[in-house]
User: What shape does this take?
Amino acid sequence: MQLLRIILAVVALSLASFSRAAEHDAAHAAAAVEQAGHEATAAAHEAHGEHHGLPAGAVKVFSLGPVVITNSMVVTLVVTLGIVIFAQLVSRNLTPVPSGLQNFAEWLVEGMYNFLGEILGPKLVKQMFWFFGSIFFFILFTNWFGLIPGVGTVGWSVTNADGSHEFQPWLRGGNADLNMTSAMALLFFALWIFWALKANGPIGFLKHIFAPGADGKGFMKWFMVAIFLFVGVLETLSILFRPVSLSFRLFGNIFAGENVLEAMMNVVPWLSWLIPLPFYFLELLVGLVQALVFMLLTAVFTLLICEHAAHDDHGDEHGHDDKAHGHAH
Assistant: This one.
């Protein structure tokens, strides 16, 4: 059941990148970046007649009616399809004693479940693992898929108005597109608000932000209220900035890594197969670390707002343990 929920969430994450408005904004941003750097790269264009490096924005591959399909979205769909096929192979012949692919899949899911359980507690991880597990595996496999030879390096050339040529890849790393990372960050932000209201209620949610410790009597009470109101405003700004920091952190690391690999391939063309190798293995590690960082940050943000429920859960667990010990005696 946990595996099925993860697969459904991964599909939802992939579909979250289908935002025409976001793609339109990204195209304008890419055009602005390209225009700003045009004068600096004019000499290189004249010397080589070609633009090196990944474009700042995703490139349109085809359209399905009003929906624009970019090269980054193709990668996310391929990754999602791969995860779904893997899940189908795993769940086709389930056995009480797992072996082969079933054993590997259960090891992945149970290991991540236990890891998050140490952070969130048994109650919260049971409610929220479907999201955090999906985020981790989806980001990890999307990052690693972007390192497959041909992704970002095989494509077509477009002639610009000034006569220069710009390379546009057929496939592009899914998380090297700000649309994808922003969609995941905004999806988490919406779920975070839902979980916060569910755990604390509207009044408790506001009190958690603006008056977490405004107790006492007389003048000291109102003094603490004023202090925590000011701190609450700062906390609100921090909360609103979280989707920005989450999306740009993941996008920046993956986009920079792919450009480093592309640059290393062009340092010495006849050694393009050798020079990028150390950076390639480094990017494998970066892909894993960034998936962990995104998942851990979202999990910690959730724990901080739902810590009351987590503490109650730990208290209930200890109470059950005490009762068990009492019955044993």
Observations:
- The CA atoms of residues 16 and 328 lie 52 Å apart.
